[in-house]
C-alpha cells in the first residue's frame, strides 16, 4: 500500500531508565529525502547513527527529528571549584577591605556567588552505552511515523480510486459519443452545401471525402486505449509496497496528455465538456500525488 510523506511519530524512554530520551519526528512532502536532526550538544557524536536509522526506513520527504534527554542519576554531573579564581576573588576583596579600613573579610557565601567559581559539568558517558538506550526509543518513533504515513496513504489511495473511476466512466461517455460526431459533421456539411448550391448538382463523393478526412482527424480511439492503459497502471501501482510517488506523478502526466489530446481532436462541444470533467478529477489527483512517498 502506498504511503504519504506526511506523518508524526513520538516515543519516550521507560520511567526507570537512568537516561530518559524523548524523540519526536515530523515529516512533510519533499522531492528527495532530507533529514534534519536537533539533539543535545553532549550527544552530537550520535547524529550520524540517528540519520542512518532514519534513512533505512524512509525514502522520501523532509523529516525533522527532535531528541531531548534527561539524566536522573546524581553521578551524571560533577561540581568542581576553580581554586585559582576563588583565591583571586578572595585577594581582591581582602585588598578592598584594607583600602576601606574595614575589618570584614570575604566569606564563603559571598565568594560562591561569583561567576565560574563553581563549575557544573555533565560527566562524559560512553557513546555506545548512550546509543543502546537511545536506539530503541528512536526506532519506536520511526515506527509511529511510518504507521501514520501508511494510514494517510490508505486514505489517499481510496480517494485516488474514486477519482480514477470517475475518469474511466467519463471516458466511456466520450467513447460512446465519438462516432456520432462524424455523422453529425457529415450531415451539417451536406446541409451547408445544399444551402449554398441550391438546386445545383452536388457531388456526393466530395461530401464523403470531407467527412472521411474529418473522421480521421477527430478519431480519439488510440487516445482512449492509452488512457485506459494508464488508468490500469495507476491502480496497479497503488498496490505496490515500494515508494511509488514519482511513478504516480509520471502516470498522472500521461493521463493529462491523453485527455488534452482527446479535447483538441474531438472538435465537439459535448466531448469538450466531458474532457473538462476528467481534467477536474485529474487535477485533484495531481495535487495529492505530490504527497506520496
Automatic annotation (TrEMBL):
The keyword Nuclease applies. Residues 174-293 form the Endoribonuclease YicC-like C-terminal domain. Its cofactor is a divalent metal cation. Keywords: Coiled coil, Endonuclease, Hydrolase, Nuclease. Residues 150-177 form a coiled coil. This is YicC domain protein. The keyword Zinc does not apply. Belongs to the YicC/YloC family. Residues 2-157 form the Endoribonuclease YicC-like N-terminal domain. GO terms for molecular function: hydrolase activity; RNA endonuclease activity.
